Amino acid sequence: MVLEQISANRSFGGKQLRYKHQSAVLNCEMTFSVYLPPQAAQGSVPVLYWLSGLTCSDENFVQKSGAQQYAADHGIAIVCPDTSPRGENVADDPEGSYDMGLGAGFYVNATQQPWAKHYQMYSYIADELPKLINGEFPVDPSKVSISGHSMGGHGALIIALNAPSQFKSVSAFAPICSPLNCPWGIKTMSNYLGKDRDNWAQYDSVALVGKATERLPVLIDQGDGDNFLEEQLNTPLLIEAAEKANFPMQIRLQPDYDHSYFFIATFIGEHIAFHAAAMGAAKV
Fold this sequence. Notes:
It is a single chain. By secondary structure, the protein is α/β, with parallel strands linked by helices. The chain is 33% helix and 23% strand. It has nine helices and nine strands. The chain has helices spanning 59-64, 67-74, 121-136, 151-162, 183-193, 205-211, 229-233, 235-244, 261-279, and strands spanning 4-11, 14-23, 28-36, 45-51, 77-81, 139-149, 170-173, 218-223, 250-254.
């Protein structure tokens, strides 16, 4: 697979890089960003995958979170993929809405037309991209964690819950906890996966927690000033499901914080430290 570097910036002694490549899974050209900490110059480092939310690309987290400083402190690489397939021939919401189509891949494998040809984000994140990263960058494939925000928090949780042996830990900021029970999820899942709601459960964190046999370390931060909390995010449903399943999760409600990157930047250092501990990364 041919990688083309788009940009490179020095950051906290490491390198913030951006690439594009042709994805066989998504049938289009994709971009991703990767931060390599200074420790990567000496050998393989643990790697954290970050999944962004609705309307975002691979660049939002890179530019707004301030994560590079903490990644350099702990010697962790961070991989930030795009949030959906893109291109002239990639299907988009016919009404041009932000919550479906381009920028809204929801990290599922679509089965319905016209979405199925390109919208295979689950397989891209869980399989194709890690194989590419492991082959091209100095990362340790035995030390992998995943995190994300909003739609990306949903993606991080479902991917980790479906394949817990691949990850050391999972965290999320303001995740969409149950697409089965919110307008964003109902719209996208019915279009991407069809009307049979039983097919949606594999992409619903609340449903997956009830079936989980392994107990990955989980950290979730949710602002109680988030205007999407009640209608779209449904954090109480995940708290209830985790308690019912005896699945220990650290779910923190943060007073007055909203859905923005100000919220993420405030707590990203704690999330990276959480993953560093789970992956056995030593702080410099």
